[in-house]
Amino acid sequence: MEVSLRQVSKENYEEVCELDVTKEQEDFVACNMWSIVESKYNEGYETRVIYLKEEPVGFFMWVKESSIKVSIWRFMVDKNHQQKSIVLICSILVLKYISLMNVPSDFPAVKKNVLFIALQKKSIQHHQITITHC
């Protein structure tokens, strides 16, 4: 499976805005159009389009909140491309990219392997996931 991350550009932003999740998932994911706007006007916001071969199938946005904290704010895969292992592959790609680009060399190694995820729907729930192979 050929999954890649690419910049949001004038060539692909409309397709990104048309990506959609299932009705049941709508309360958990912000609109991609709004996320793109946020990224253009806020420092430290990074967006990527998830591609399956040459087709945009998802969207990712993370925010560098400090020199040692990067938060994944948006992560979605279009409803027509879910259940295809894209989420797992893309997660590994993004985590590798973030860890290479944003984690200071003096940050404790044990902390580099911990990812906090917040799911938002009326109240915020936090889940901790340990990444052992990245």
- Number of strand segments: 6
Question: Number of folding domains?
Answer: 1
Query: Which percent range describes the beta-strand content?
Result: 35-45%
Number of helices: 4
Trace the largest sheet across and list its strands.
Answer: 1-2-3-4
Shape: globular
The CATH topology name reads Aminopeptidase
Helix content: 25-40%
Superfamily (CATH H level) name = Gcn5-related N-acetyltransferase (GNAT)
List the helices and strands and how they pair.
Layout: E1 3-6, H1 13-18, H2 32-41, E2 45-52, E3 55-66, E4 69-77, H3 86-102, H4 109-112, E5 114-121, E6 123-130
Antiparallel strand pairs: 1-2, 2-3, 3-4, 5-6
Give structural notes.
With 134 residues, the protein is of the alpha+beta class. It has a single domain, classed as 3-Layer(aba) Sandwich (Aminopeptidase). Helices cover 28% and strands 37% of the residues. A four-stranded antiparallel beta sheet has the order 1-2-3-4. The chain has a two-stranded antiparallel sheet with strand order 5-6. A hairpin with a 1-residue loop joins strand 5 (114-121) and strand 6. The longest helix has 17 residues, at 86-102. The two termini are 18 Å apart. Residues 108-134 have low confidence and may be disordered.
